[in-house]
Design goal:
This protein is an alpha+beta fold and 845 residues long. Helices cover 20% and strands 36% of the residues. The N and C termini lie far apart (63 Å).
Length: 845
């Protein structure tokens, strides 16, 4: 029997130690590996399938050591890539995964590393579109572990669109964690490892991943291998990850696995990370939305004139560093997540400054004049009404107390939310000066026809013409589509006026105790249910909106008692402030909630009761909308190594249950659970408060998932704001379309400039085909990426404002696969079920 040995380390940049602490260990470990190579005690080493480690190491290594590492990579002794970082798959957009892979392959190619194995050894399950993502990035073979169950190591993985890739599945619950050659009894331990694995290889040669988290190979590895050959009679060869592709040939008769991989019968998939430190998920989606919905489209529409491509790459790379699975999952020590928050803050600062500086170059602002033009750039291709919130500055000496807004000759209805005086520092002609303004915070509902720049005309008006927002004692608001009433329980009854159907007792804030850890929710032996109670309400009516402002108090246990299995006798009061808004021309209910959480060891959720029991729900993941069967199995784990089959699942931006479509920002965990024998409820987790990175004996998981370190800040004792919306729909594609519509706001600039010319403007038909990316490549060609959300073939129809030279269908790396015929500035392309389509638009004639 031949054993192919892949010497490796699984390198989490941050986890049970901070990034800086692990960074020094990385330096130490890589230099140990170099010394082992120098002593000819190792033949090959696989550096965990990621390339960010090269950047991290370069910052702390001597020039000689770094060049030696590059030399070992060039000589095919060390392999890195194809990823930039090993990211979680469920908690980030598919587009983030594509960028991750793009940067990783770019670096791999630059340093001469093969990087052809789609290496995903420790992500907590796998999304359905990984096969297509890899295949369209010139990767034909994957290696996966958690969530994937098979009787064989070699499999064919068939993705959501039907794409097939060869896939190695690590067969035992240890997965990549195989440090046997570092032990004193390495001969017996290695023999046991072989015996445990060989049945899954069906009489073929075996491969073993020699290594574990943050562990590097034995300094006398080749001597140990020589002893193993002598004692056990095995032929042992050292290979790198991509060499698996050369050694193992796949046939069409291999075992098949399909779609997303979420089976936890072999290894934990740790579903609770979807709600751990939910504030991180919200921050992440804010940045993803701004990069994908604002920054990159702005670069396209201004035709790259501001030369920001490298800065955009800088922003993306820094965001992706927060996507490492122990980072975005929230399952690390507190110091790690403090640093993540700083990274998100810095990313927000960078994006804001990029847009502000660039806009000033095309929309001139004169601080001593009344800047009477408001430019509103909408980057969303959907035709629909949107709420635009902005500030309008009037020089204090010119202000008369109010303003009016026109769209050409049409007087617009809008609301002045706030008026105040403020001194501003204005940079003009490279000179700083202070100016006094009256600031009007306004809200306007505008109908957009897709991607466009609307120029509104501003006029100064008299104070006595200014309308005020009304405060009325009403407990009911409505528009053309929806009616909302506060019922006697202090909950919301929401009527779909189109169908006449009424959904009762909606938006219940419910808290139960949680004795779990950062990886898994787990109920204590004695639980306690706490429900928020309505204390006060008022109704606010503007020209374009109606709003219920509700104040709830949630009396609940302070946390668990000292036994961690029963409620504390001490009670605390968490304050919940909720705004429920209807817009005049929009069919959604918008919820904005502020929670001042005072309770530990709890799971706070919002409940939307359905009107019946359901068998499945739709939710989105990267490049897919997945129809998931409802799991009603509530059997708790009994044996070490078992994890309860999760009731919870992940919805990247929204979930549709019955006809209730709920979209959100950052509230990724949902479940469908029985309310009574007749109806189910849709639960969305807002906060999960826990105090340990990992515990050993939960009802939902038997055994640890990491070190048992305390993480007091994971209790989330902080003020947080969350947003979500509800719409009545039976169209799964609305999950992506509705969330995009309210999460991606227009780009706004006030000035004296009459007109700005946008380039690369286009229109789309067919709402089932979702826009994923709109960006420029290195040659300033527009790249458009779409995904067909439907189970059927769909026709994409695009129309361009300018005459296009050429359009090419590309893979995810931008490499041309096919040329598309353009007729009268229009194209039609058929997309198969769940297909990801990338188009390269080659300039204008």
């Amino acid at each position: 029997m031949k054993i192919n040995l892949i010497n490796q380390t699984h390198w989490d940049r941050e986890w049970y130690k901070s990034f800086e602490e692990f960074k020094f260990r990385l330096k130490d470990g890589i230099e140990d590996v170099q010394d082992i190579f120098e002593a000819k005690n190792i033949d090959k080493f696989f550096l965990d399938g990621q390339t960010v480690v090269l950047e991290d190491y370069k910052e702390v290594a001597s020039k000689k050591r770094y060049e030696n590492l590059l030399s070992l990579i060039k000589d095919k002794k060390i392999e890195v890539g194809p990823w930039y970082i090993l990211a979680d798959e469920f908690l980030i957009t598919g587009e983030s995964l594509v960028r991750n892979l793009h940067y990783g392959k770019e670096i791999s190619k630059k340093v001469g590393s093969r990087g052809e194995l789609g290496y995903l050894p420790d992500t907590f399950g796998h999304i359905s579109q990984i096969p297509q993502i890899l295949k369209k990035s010139n990767i034909d073979t994957a290696l996966i572990f958690r969530g994937a169950l098979s009787p064989t190591v070699k499999n064919i993985w068939i993705g959501a669109d039907g794409t097939q890739i060869n896939t190695f599945i690590l067969p035992t619950r240890e997965g990549y964690f195989q440090p046997e050659l570092l032990s004193e009894n390495y001969i017996e331990n290695f023999k046991g490892l072989i015996e445990k694995n060989k049945e899954y290889f069906l009489n073929e040669d075996i491969f073993i991943l020699n290594g574990a988290d943050h562990i590097f190979p034995s300094k006398n590895l080749n001597e140990k291998i020589k002893t193993l050959k002598s004692k056990l009679g095995y032929e042992i060869a050292q290979i790198n990850g991509s060499e698996l592709i050369d050694y193992y040939k796949f046939s069409k008769n291999e075992n098949k696995i399909y779609g997303e991989q979420r089976d936890n019968n072999k290894a934990y998939i740790l579903i609770g990370v979807a709600s751990t430190r939910s504030y991180l998920k919200r921050m992440n989606q804010e940045i993803e939305d701004k990069l994908l919905g604002l920054v990159e489209p702005f670069d396209v529409l201004t035709k790259g004139r501001f030369e920001i491509k490298n800065y955009i790459d800088y922003l993306w790379k820094n965001l992706i560093k927060n996507h490492a699975h122990d980072s975005i999952c929230g399952c690390s020590i507190d110091e790690v997540h403090k640093e993540m928050e700083v990274r998100y803050t810095k990313l927000n600062q960078g994006i804001s400054q990029l847009l502000e500086t660039s806009l000033k170059k095309i929309v001139k602002f004169e601080p001593n004049l009344f800047n009477d033009k408001l430019h509103i750039i909408n980057t969303d291709p959907q035709k629909r009404f949107k709420t635009v919130k902005t500030e309008i500055l009037v020089p204090k000496n010119l202000d008369k107390g109010s303003i009016t807004i026109f769209d050409k000759e049409k007087l617009l209805s809008f609301d002045i939310l706030k008026r105040y005086e403020e001194e501003r520092l204005i940079v003009q002609n490279d000179y700083l000066n202070y100016h006094n303004f009256v600031v009007y915070d306004v809200e306007i509902e505008i109908e957009f026809n897709g991607i466009e720049n609307k120029v509104l005309i501003l006029k100064i008006d008299d104070y006595n013409k200014r309308d005020t927002i009304l405060k009325v004692p009403s407990e009911c608001i409505e528009n053309k589509a929806i009616r909302i009433k506060i019922n006697s329980k202090g909950l919301l009854d929401i009527e779909d006026k189109i169908t006449g159907k009424i959904y009762k007792n909606m938006n219940q804030y419910i808290s139960t105790l949680d004795s779990g850890d950062e990886y898994n929710y787990s109920p204590p032996e004695i639980d306690k249910l706490s429900k928020a109670k309505l204390m006060d309400s008022e109704c606010e009516i503007g020209k374009g909106y109606k709003k219920l402002k509700l104040k709830y108090e949630l009396n609940q246990p302070e946390g668990l008692d000292i036994d961690m299995q029963s409620p504390s006798s001490i009670e605390v009061k968490s304050l919940i402030l909720l705004n429920v808004t209807l817009r005049e021309n929009q069919d959604e209910v918008y919820f904005k909630v502020s929670i001042d959480n005072k309770a530990k060891d709890q799971r706070l959720r919002v409940l939307f009761p359905l009107t019946k029991k359901i068998e499945f729900a739709y939710a989105d993941s990267g490049f897919d909308i997945v129809k998931r069967k409802i799991n009603r199995d509530l059997n708790y784990s009994k044996n070490i190594g078992e994890e309860m089959n999760p009731v919870e699942a992940v919805a990247l931006s929204g979930v549709m249950a019955e006809n209730i479509l709920l979209t959100h920002r950052g509230l990724l965990e949902y479940s469908i659970e029985k309310i009574d024998e007749k109806i189910d409820g849709l639960y969305i987790t807002l906060i999960r408060s826990v105090g340990h990175l990992s515990k050993r004996n939960l009802q939902t998981r038997r055994g640890g998932a990491g070190p048992g370190l305390k993480t007091p800040e994971a209790q989330c004792l902080r003020k947080e704001k969350y947003e979500y919306s509800v719409r009545f729909s039976n169209k799964p594609e609305d999950i992506c379309n509705v969330s995009r519509a309210w999460r991606i706001e227009p780009i706004i600039s006030q000035g004296v400039t009459e007109k700005i010319d946008l380039s690369n403007v286009w229109k789309k038909e067919n709402d089932k085909i979702i826009l994923s990316a709109m960006k420029l490549d290195e040659e300033k060609n527009m790249i458009l990426r779409f995904v067909n959300s439907s189970e059927n073939k769909e026709i994409l129809k695009l129309e361009f404002e300018e005459n296009i030279k050429n359009i090419k269908i590309c893979n995810l790396l931008g490499e041309t696969e096919k040329v598309v015929l353009v007729e009268n500035k229009k194209i039609e392309i058929e997309l198969t079920c769940k297909e990801i389509l990338t188009l390269k638009i080659l300039g204008v004639k």
